[in-house]
Design brief:
The protein is built from 11 helices and 16 strands. With 337 residues, it is α/β, with parallel strands linked by helices. It has 2 domains: 2-116 and 306-328, ornithine cyclodeaminase, domain 1, CATH 3.30.1780; 132-301, Rossmann fold (3-Layer(aba) Sandwich). Strands 1, 2, 3, 4, 5, 6, 7 and 16 form an 8-stranded mixed beta sheet that branches. Strand 8, helix 4 and strand 9 (166-170) form a beta-alpha-beta unit. Helix 2 packs across helix 10, helix 2 packs across helix 11 (306-323) and helix 3 crosses helix 11. The chain is globular and about 65 Å long.
């Protein structure tokens, strides 16, 4: 068993945004082609703490079967979300990823998973922004929720959208927004960063908006958004069912995203169908079709398929082996009696 810590995962992934996006895009295309197995995620919830949860995402990422293709990958991500950690100065999310041998089924590598999870989420968002690009250059983005995920989103957007020059921030906690702005000034000084005091002003500032909050129920009126805006609906529960039903909706998998009281799940319950979902990102990547309507709101709602975590974890595993990173534990599995 090879064990890779958060620092080692970051060492592999820092500066590798294009490789991560490539891995995520490949996983989406394989999923669209039916070359994956993605059981429904298991949500472990707690009777006395409704906001906290731990989620298990098992998955299998296959191959195209073509020459030179990579080996298939199987494994699981076990990720917790405890929003109350933020008040104690701790990270909201923590995770572990296990990859199993497809020859023996034995666990082969244990990776710290929160870095992988954040970056595959950001890569997915940036890939959608680039794939569903408008005719004119995308020069600005609004980030609603000033946490780890949206900083990674901003990093990946900078890698994929060369014209990006402005970022507008909004968070219910002004101190978090200020700290985020300071981090932007330090890490991304070429960007013009402003902080909006009202959510309405933030939503209207740019035609690209990333929502990464800890909302447990719809709370956001998207009417201030300009026509032609793309909403990267990463936290899945910000938008009202009415907003979903009146928008062009792109998902990663309609069966997965219409669960667990997401905005799309509530929209399905209200409408009695899923016809409001226009397409999947995998089908768009495979067929080259886009759905950025200049006169409407486009909403990208990715549930976050486990195959994305496997794709990025496999990338980390391979590069870590090449670089001699990690701690090998040869006697991790019990010997036969």
């Amino acid at each position: 068993m090879l064990i890779l810590t958060a620092g080692e995962v970051r060492q592999v992934l820092d500066g590798a945004e294009h490789e991560v996006v490539e891995a995520v895009g490949r996983a989406y295309r394989l999923h669209a082609a039916g070359r994956t197995a993605v059981p429904h995620s298991l949500f472990l919830r707690f009777p006395d703490s409704a906001r906290d949860r731990i989620i298990a995402l098992p998955a299998y990422l296959g191959t195209t079967g073509g020459p030179g293709d990579r080996e298939p990958v199987a494994g699981i991500k076990w990720i917790s979300s405890f929003p109350g950690n933020l008040a104690s100065g701790l990270e909201r999310a923590s995770a572990a990823v296990v990859l199993n041998s497809m020859r023996t089924g034995h666990p082969e590598v244990l990776l710290e998973g929160s870095v992988i999870s954040a970056r595959r989420t950001a890569a997915s968002a940036a890939l959608a922004a680039a794939t569903l690009a408008p005719a004119e250059p995308q020069t600005g983005v609004t980030l609603v929720g000033c946490g780890v995920i949206n900083f990674e989103v901003l990093t990946f957007l900078r890698a994929l959208l060369p014209d990006l020059a402005e970022v507008t921030l909004f968070d219910l906690d002004p101190a978090r927004a200020r700290a985020f702005a300071e981090r932007c000034a330090d890490r991304l000084p070429e960007l013009k960063t402003t902080t909006a005091e009202r959510i309405e002003d933030a939503l209207a500032a740019h035609r690209l908006v990333s929502l990464a909050t800890t909302a447990a129920a719809p709370h956001l009126d998207a009417s201030p958004c300009r026509p032609g805006t793309l909403l990267l609906h990463l936290s899945l529960r910000d938008l009202s069912p009415e907003t979903i039903l009146s928008s062009v909706n792109i998902v990663d998998d309609d069966d997965h995203v219409c669960r667990e009281a997401t905005s799309l799940h509530l929209a399905e319950q209200q409408a009695g169908h899923r016809d409001f979902i226009a397409d999947s990102i995998g089908a768009i990547l495979t067929g080259g079709r886009g759905h950025r309507d200049p006169g409407a709101l486009t909403v990208f709602s990715p549930f976050g398929l486990g195959v994305l975590d496997l794709a990025v974890a496999d990338l980390v595993h391979r590069k870590a082996r090449e670089q001699g990173l990690g701690t090998d534990v040869p006697d991790f599995l019990s010997p036969e009696a």
